[in-house]
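Title: Comparing notes on inverse folding

I've been comparing how different people in this forum approach sequence design from structure. To keep things fair, I'm posting one structure and asking everyone to reply with a full sequence. Here's the target:
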């Protein structure tokens, strides 16, 4: 098992990838010549062949895009790699531009009877049918072929802004007490028992972002404008509508989700405030400094530090107790060097699982420092990887899943590992610390992400009235953070942190997916622990496998969960309520 991933099964070199990208472009041009203007008149078998060719081409493009990003995110300071990244992005966008006619003709020219005929045809695979249904959801928002090609070109320009943002953030470096840190390494300082060290680290982090606030504000303004142009031309009623269609969640569902975590009289909202009030009390302050919301408790000893081998053993053992199949798949990613583990210069911060096309194993990217949270993160990303692996059953088009569904497997995997750690711990102090850290992660996954979502809403609204200043972004961000953090946290020093939330820049309306999936997982996990559903693990694996062809309501119904219930989101926080109650009980057992 290597500390870095091996990408040679994808391409041996950058030059090979470039050569393949040129062949891919030629292939896309040929596909367009063969089928453009003819889709509506194709017989079922020929139409299926068209979709299979399209699927195979998408497989090739996915491999190019994935390899491109994998190389770039681990070499952000290498100018040659950055140039390769952009060239590849441009070529892939050109390929997709050649393919835009297919979805346009499906949405604009296929009549209802023909669509019904295709969907009823047993010869057309489930994966292709699922993709066709998803495509048709965007029928009211699909433009002419020429305009769709233009938007492909416009997206290429927007991608340059995202690249500028990421490459500027990759330069992050601050010196704290004689040692230099990149942003991914700051967790070590925030985990210190020295409050002055935590404060110094946060002050210098803020200062770094303050120096670049105008640049980041300009980048975000450009991206918001680009997204607003697409919204206007595609006739979306509100900025989040495209994301909602992709996630198969309607506007009312999203409003209910947001209200559950942000409305002043919501019981769920009070839980986060309750935790922060408890932490402030135990840290002996009236208000927690923002950087101390995740700080260790005064009675907390140096937490257990795990090696990669120890983390691997713990995670795989836990997965195997739930599902031997799940564990066996996860083990492949270790054995076949599909994980890049440690932080190093030029590597991006954070963590992700990169989807790979049919025929290739997903890749896992983490910045492992050995803390419990790093073990949880590794489990989270492995959950994604297992999900990606099993969902390939229905082919390249049939494995496409919503962002909200994609986060379900990862959060469930993380919950399994946390539960195993908690079950093995009997000491009240160590049990308290485990619970507290898990609650903090749950708050970050739910309340914090809804605060980010509300910031996105406010940013879109403000941008509609003209360019938004860095000061305005700061004020909007602080207002939503105050709402979720509550009166026990001092938010006065988080002015510039909005610029460090990469989801705002790289995606549009992705963040609520985390909260969505956390509520889904909490409900699923309670059913699992109750033992009320026979063969739960097998059904769970089926749910992951079928995630590209079934929506979340259909999936949850198999477990007796009604996702259409008005109280569904609130019910999804019952697990948090139970953990919070146990935490408060443990306080009484701890001798301070």
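Reply #1:
Here's my take.
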């Amino acid at each position: 098992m290597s500390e870095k991933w091996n990408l040679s099964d994808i391409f041996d070199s950058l030059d090979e990838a470039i050569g393949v990208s040129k062949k891919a472009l030629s292939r896309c041009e040929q596909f367009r010549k063969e089928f453009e203007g003819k889709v509506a008149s194709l017989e079922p078998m020929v139409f299926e062949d068209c979709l299979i060719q399209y699927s195979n081409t998408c497989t090739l493009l996915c491999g190019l895009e994935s390899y491109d990003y994998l190389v770039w995110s681990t070499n952000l300071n290498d100018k040659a790699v950055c140039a390769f990244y952009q060239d590849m992005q441009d070529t892939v966008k050109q390929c997709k531009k050649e393919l835009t006619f297919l979805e346009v003709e499906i949405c604009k020219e296929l009549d209802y009877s023909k669509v019904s005929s295709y969907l009823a045809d047993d010869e057309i695979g489930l994966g292709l049918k699922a993709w066709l249904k998803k495509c048709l959801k965007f029928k009211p928002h699909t433009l002419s072929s020429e305009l769709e090609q233009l938007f492909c070109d416009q997206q290429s320009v927007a991608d340059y802004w995202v690249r500028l943002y990421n490459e500027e953030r990759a330069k992050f470096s601050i010196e704290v007490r004689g040692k230099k840190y990149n942003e991914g390494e700051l967790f070590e300082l925030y985990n210190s028992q020295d409050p002055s060290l935590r404060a110094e680290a946060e002050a210098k982090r803020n200062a770094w972002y303050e120096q670049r606030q105008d640049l980041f504000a300009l980048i975000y303004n450009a991206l918001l404008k680009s997204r607003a142009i697409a919204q206007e031309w595609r006739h979306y009623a509100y900025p989040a509508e495209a994301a909602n269609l992709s996630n198969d969640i309607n506007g009312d569902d999203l409003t209910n989700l947001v209200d559950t975590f942000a409305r002043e009289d919501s019981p769920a909202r009070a839980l986060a405030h309750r935790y922060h009030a408890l932490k402030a009390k135990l840290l002996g302050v009236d208000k927690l400094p923002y950087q101390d919301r995740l700080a260790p408790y005064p009675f907390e000893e140096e937490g257990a530090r795990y090696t990669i081998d120890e983390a691997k053993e713990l995670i795989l053992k836990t997965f195997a107790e739930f599902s031997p199949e799940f564990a066996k798949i996860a083990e492949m990613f270790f054995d076949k060097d599909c994980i890049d583990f440690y932080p190093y210069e030029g590597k991006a911060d954070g963590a992700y699982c990169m989807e790979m096309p049919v025929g290739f194993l997903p890749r896992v990217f983490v910045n492992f420092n050995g803390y419990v949270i790093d073990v949880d993160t590794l489990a989270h990303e492995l959950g994604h990887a297992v999900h990606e692996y099993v969902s390939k059953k229905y082919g390249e088009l049939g494995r496409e899943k919503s962002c909200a569904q994609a986060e379900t497997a990862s959060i469930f995997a993380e919950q399994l590992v946390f539960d195993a750690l908690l079950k093995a711990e009997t000491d009240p102090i160590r049990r308290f610390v485990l619970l507290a850290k898990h609650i903090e992660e749950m708050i970050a996954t739910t309340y914090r992400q809804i605060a980010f979502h509300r910031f996105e809403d406010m940013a879109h609204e403000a941008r509609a009235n003209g360019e938004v200043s860095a000061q305005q972004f700061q004020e909007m961000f602080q207002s939503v953070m105050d709402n979720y953090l509550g009166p026990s946290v001092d938010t006065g020093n988080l002015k510039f942190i909005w610029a460090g939330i990469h989801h705002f820049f790289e995606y549009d309306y992705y963040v609520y997916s985390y909260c969505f999936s956390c509520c889904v997982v909490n409900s699923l996990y309670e059913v699992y622990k109750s033992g009320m559903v026979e063969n739960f693990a097998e059904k769970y694996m089926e749910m992951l496998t079928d995630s590209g062809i079934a929506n979340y309501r259909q999936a949850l119904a198999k477990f007796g969960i009604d996702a259409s219930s008005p109280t569904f989101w609130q019910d999804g926080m019952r697990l948090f309520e139970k953990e919070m109650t146990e935490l408060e009980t443990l306080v009484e057992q701890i001798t301070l």
